[in-house]
Amino acid sequence: MGSCVFPVFMGLILLQIHKISECHKIEVTPDSGTIVIFSKKAGHGLDCSVCKDEGPSQTCNSNLRLTEAQPTTVTFNCSQPGDVFNVAINQEIDCSTTDCSIIAVHPDSTRFLEFTRTFTWDLKVQSGKVFQLDFPSPGIRQIKPSESCPDKHTYTITAYQRAGPANIGSFCRNGTISRIQVLYRGRVTLEVPKGTDLNSSDFKVSMGPAATGVVEMDVKLPRGPFSVDFFTPNYATGYYDEQKMKWNFALKPMHNFTVRFQHYAPPECQKKTVMCDYSLGDKTSFTVAPTETQPANKQGDFSLTLANCDAKKVANVPGLSLNFNVEVFRSGTPYLCTVDLRNEEGLSLQIENKNPESYCEMSLNSVMQEKIVVPAGTKADLSFLDCPVQDLQLTATKVIDCPSVSARDVTGPSLTIPTLDPSLPVPLHQFTWLLRLRDQSTVDLMSPKGSYLHQSLPDKQCNERVSLLISETEGSNIGQFCSAAEGTIQKIQIKGNVSITVTPKTIKDLSQEKGPFLKFGISPEITGKYTTGQKFGIIMILFSGVFLNVSCCMLTKPAFIRLQIQ
Ligand SMILES: *[C@@H]1O[C@H](CO)[C@@H](O)[C@H](O)[C@H]1NC(C)=O
Ligand SMILES: *[C@@H]1O[C@H](CO)[C@@H](O)[C@H](O)[C@H]1NC(C)=O
Ligand SMILES: *[C@@H]1O[C@H](CO)[C@@H](O)[C@H](O)[C@H]1NC(C)=O
Ligand SMILES: *[C@@H]1O[C@H](CO)[C@@H](O)[C@H](O)[C@H]1NC(C)=O
Ligand SMILES: *[C@@H]1O[C@H](CO)[C@@H](O)[C@H](O)[C@H]1NC(C)=O
């Protein structure tokens, strides 16, 4: 007993399958302008026929061609017709006017799923013109005629020439070819095996310009390193017509290309010779024979026109066959440098590219990185390819683990920016010191010059070349400070870890500003308390000798302010 349970309703072509023993009955309505053909697979001896109901009678055969856009009942007298029959869905597209632009639509995905489906589009334009196929992104790629596509959707393009059909090539989805132009008349075939859902990717058909050859392809090469293969029409058996084939390659900026002829089988020329004409983006052009070296390491877009000779077409004399490869790679040479942080305790570096449009390629120890991080205590080999300095940002962080105090204050060194490797091609954009405490002690910050600190306030801003931001490491900023003659802050005491960040204000590169920016020390835990009982985190010790009516500080957190009268 054969089972006859299958999908019932499918788009414009209606397919119905009824449960009848040892048979399949389906109802098919071809789209208008479409021909549906059931035909027996070659070499299939299986005893099964396709029958069409015509009133009370039935005509049975090994194939059935439906052309009318009306429902027809089709019966197969076996339970698995997909094992015996293929279905072809053919559409003719005449695109003979200049404003013709037709989207060649794939029918919906599950139609005729149980059959191997061959979709064919027969295309025609005015004589002497080309028909143009535009493939939506991500384009298509050419495969060897013997290969098949990983997604089981194989496209074939055929040109109908006076001398007979020429197989332009087999193609898979997802590739670098965005457009193919073919002389005058031809066919696009898409074959999908049975059981595979059709994955729709419609292409556009239009009439192109006057023909210059049998085929022309537009290829958009991605960022390198990348390489891709192409094959001439009738690859392997050979192409005999005295025609041109052209490939136009668009490269990404900052890329070079190399063309290699992987396999070349020459035709037997009766007149003329086979020639390869190259024209480069910079308008230079040259011609080489296919047996000569092809262009290597050239820059920019280019096109290759292969002109066949008038080849002798007799049995056992092959025609022209060429398989060539185009490789693209970056045109620039990387800038190399080494950063050694092993002698600067706690110092780490970060380099970022701030321009996502740029072709900058950075790598750390030969591994490509979006963002370079050189951890403290390491040595790293860096490489920069086509990275404009103004797009890069270098930030450095130095972690200082402060000693613990018993009761006596400890005065640490001044904060200065260490000398970074001068071979590093990036201006220093930000430098941060992270003062880390092991216990509950307090960080004291003072002006390094023996003067006082001033907090940058709206009515009296710091007027320095850099800005100096002091923050608690849990995130809250205490404020921007500078050393100033009229400063009033003798000392800032902060409980817990502190970060101090220097960024340029009027200069471009911090590495020219060594400092010292601040002096720091460690003292025992702050003991002051709010009225609520919560401990103070910040104490400002102000020098009251000069200030009268001078604004001193603005803090986002409650702080304890102590006047030091001298
Ligand atoms: C199907 O029909 C054809 C023609 O009517 C007949 O020759 C064949 O034996 C039938 N096959 C089966 C399996 O019934
Ligand atoms: C398309 O091709 C590229 C490169 O060959 C591959 O990396 C990518 O995964 C492919 N995408 C799909 C959807 O197959
Ligand atoms: C259909 O093709 C697209 C693009 O190639 C892919 O992303 C998608 O996964 C495919 N879907 C199926 C069902 O194969
Ligand atoms: C890329 O091509 C240009 C011009 O032909 C050449 O000057 C440059 O050296 C090439 N780049 C590489 C990486 O070879
Ligand atoms: C300071 O930072 C270190 C390391 O992140 C941490 O272990 C320590 O507890 C912090 N100290 C305070 C007082 O928050």
Automatic annotation (TrEMBL):
<keyword id="KW-1133">Transmembrane helix</keyword>
<feature type="domain" description="CDCP1 third and sixth CUB">
    <location>
        <begin position="222"/>
        <end position="314"/>
    </location>
</feature>
<dbReference type="InterPro" id="IPR056269">
    <property type="entry name" value="CUB_CDCP1_2nd_5th"/>
</dbReference>
<dbReference type="Pfam" id="PF23667">
    <property type="entry name" value="CUB_CDCP1_1"/>
</dbReference>
<feature type="domain" description="CDCP1 second and fifth CUB">
    <location>
        <begin position="428"/>
        <end position="507"/>
    </location>
</feature>
<dbReference type="Pfam" id="PF23665">
    <property type="entry name" value="CDCP1_CUB_6"/>
</dbReference>
<dbReference type="InterPro" id="IPR056268">
    <property type="entry name" value="CUB_CDCP1_1st"/>
</dbReference>
<dbReference type="InterPro" id="IPR056266">
    <property type="entry name" value="CDCP1_CUB_3rd_6th"/>
</dbReference>
<dbReference type="Pfam" id="PF23668">
    <property type="entry name" value="CUB_CDCP1_2"/>
</dbReference>
<feature type="transmembrane region" description="Helical">
    <location>
        <begin position="536"/>
        <end position="556"/>
    </location>
</feature>
<feature type="domain" description="CDCP1 second and fifth CUB">
    <location>
        <begin position="103"/>
        <end position="207"/>
    </location>
</feature>
<keyword id="KW-0472">Membrane</keyword>
<feature type="domain" description="CDCP1 first CUB">
    <location>
        <begin position="25"/>
        <end position="95"/>
    </location>
</feature>
<feature type="signal peptide">
    <location>
        <begin position="1"/>
        <end position="23"/>
    </location>
</feature>
<protein>
    <submittedName>
        <fullName>CUB domain-containing protein 1-like</fullName>
    </submittedName>
</protein>
<keyword id="KW-0732">Signal</keyword>
<dbReference type="InterPro" id="IPR038811">
    <property type="entry name" value="CDCP1"/>
</dbReference>
<keyword id="KW-0812">Transmembrane</keyword>
